[in-house]
Amino acid sequence: MCGIFAYKGKRNATKTVFEGLKKLEYRGYDSWGMAFKKQGKIQTIKKVGKIAEFNKKIPENADYAIGHTRWATHGKVNEKNAHPQLSNNKKIAVIHNGIIDNYMKIKNILMGKGYNFKSQTDTEVIPNLIQENMKKSSFREAVKKSLKTMEGSFAIVAISQDSNEIIAAKKMSPLVLGINDNESFVSSDVAAFLSYTDKAIIMDDNEMAVIDEDIEIINLKENKKITKKAKSIGMNYEEAEKGGFKHFLIKEISEQEESIMRAINQDREFIENISKQIDNAFGVFFVSCGTSYHACLSASYLFSKIVKKHVNVVLASEFINYKHFLTENTLVIAVSQSGETADVLDAVRTAREKNSRIISIVNVPGSSLTRISDEVIPMNAGQEVSVLSTKSYTSQLAILTLIAYACAGKYEKGLGLIRKSAYYIKKIISNDRKKIKSLAKKLKDKRDIFIIGRGLAFPSALEAALKIKEVSYIHAEGLAGGELKHGTLALIEEGVPVIVISTSDSEANIENNANEIKSRGGFMIGFNSHESNIYDYFIKIPSLENMEPLITIVPIQLLSYYLALYRKCDPDKPRNLAKSVTVR
Ligand code: M6R
Fold first, then answer.
1. 291 lines ligand 1 (CB under 6 A)
2. pLDDT tens digit sequence for 106-151
3. Of 297, 360, 389, 579, which is best to mutate to test ligand 1, by the most ligand atoms within 8 angstroms of its C-beta?
């Protein structure tokens, strides 16, 4: 979490960093700050709240600037804890993403030498450690020495009053350099500088970049200068803009016909080769978090149904518990929109230690996951800015569905069904929007919403609940229809809304569950193909062999969006969350 952006070059530095931070707010948005060098002095500005809401003038005419948007890990959300953090002598400023595991030890040592600490952050040890090391060496040597002391996973950017360099370094947290004529950018992701340049150097772990007139990259382990060429990123800046929509969330929901079509525009031989690897592997694990996990779970039902193949679906944060089952014949398929989710990266590293093969399905090109995988299937969803995963979910599901059909020897059939789903999705978005908005109006003041589904519709129920709760803050719970009677039915009383998702092969059973709820006064909402008088509100989903999970989630994404609007929640930046979860 946390966004880093720094700039040195011909433009107005503070303004460029300010704009860059706005694009990185999806990584954290509880506070923000900037440090810049002006008239030979380091100056800072720090604010609590979203950067987009700041409407005062920012200082100008700085030589260069570094900025940060925060997602709190250590210390409350306040200006003191916002970054940049300064050294005691106020000559060194540091911004930081990640966690310094041994910061208490470093802090105690520095306190013993007379240093004071004003924040509750782990970050504040860094500028002070650099100050201490600068007693005997230059800025860059002092940063190097400090990095050796620091344990954990982090990306940092530092500036000093006694140097003209911006120094950036990383260890297991993302950091990218943007390169253009006479100007350099440092950022947590490429999208934040894409409007200026699409040439980037992706930094690897244990590398340090020294940015002055030129950029020098140093491999910290070997303590030597290395050469890395800037490469074109191949991502379109336009994709990152709202394009006339009020929020990224509705923009991203609306573009799913195209994103699904892009997702399945893969090389057939490549996908069939992956299906062979699945077939031959001794144990297949799908590993992911949050929405990506739901896509994997959904796909596992399809693998069971059409391939008759068992795949293990494991939450990345729990994967360590499965390490004893991993061998060099195991295939791990890691699925992640960002490719930076710390839990997923940890899981893949665990699998690597056991020499298992790693295939990843990733949206962000050049992300960490792409670089530690044996093979990468690009999701091609285009940049997803809203914290809510929407188009990335349907792209993941489309790719996994295509692989399942390839495994069953029915590649063409899978392709055809997915294409048809994309068309249905487009129709739902244009035809049912009003009806879904009215439903949101009816539900907006409810305390709880329950969602049930069976078979292929069960993972959809979990994903539906996640979408509703994360953006509207209404408590939403997804469960298998059969589980209701084992406990949750106790919560059903007059007017409690229950959404029933069904697929053609689970219809009969789920209707029994729906009746159990109806007879206890539940407000019944059907999201399925079969209209029935059980439902108080009904959204028709076209029936299409095994494709319901791909289609049904879209009207529920829309429902979540409208719930957020009615409840005055920010649809793009839900409280406490971040797009890329780089902490454990
Ligand atoms: O980038 P990833 O796909 O690895 O992210 C995993 C989860 O953090 C993510 O899916 C999260 O649950 C969604 N943003 C929720 O909409």
1. yes
2. 999 999 999 999 999 999 999 999 999 999 999 999 999 999 999 9
3. 389
**H or E segment to which residue 347 belongs:** helix 342-353
Q: Where a domain ends, among 239, 260, 294? A: 239
Q: Report the alpha-carbon distance of residue 549 to residue 563 in Å, rounded.
A: 21
The residues assigned a catalytic role are: 2, 579
Last residue of a domain, one of 239, 273, 294: 239
- Global pTM reads 0.76
How far, in Å, CA of 496 to CA of 229, rounded?
59
User: Separation of 363 CA from ligand 1 center, angstroms?
Assistant: 11
In this predicted model, what pLDDT tens digit does every residue of 218-268 receive, in sequence order?
999 999 999 999 988 766 655 556 666 889 999 999 999 999 999 999 999
Cα 68 to middle of ligand 1, angstroms: 22
Ligand 1 closest atom vs CA 388: 16
Structural domain harbouring 39: 3-239
Whether 581 lines ligand 1, by a CB cut-off of 6 Å, is yes
Are 312 and 440 contained in the same domain? no
State whether the beta carbon of 389 lies less than 6 angstroms from ligand 1: yes
Sheet strands side by side (includes 537-540) = 475-480, 448-453, 497-501, 523-528, 537-540
Nearest CA to ligand 1 atom 7: 290
Token representation of residue 323: 């390490």
**580: in domain:** no
The finding on whether 338 has its CB within 6 A of some atom of ligand 1 is yes
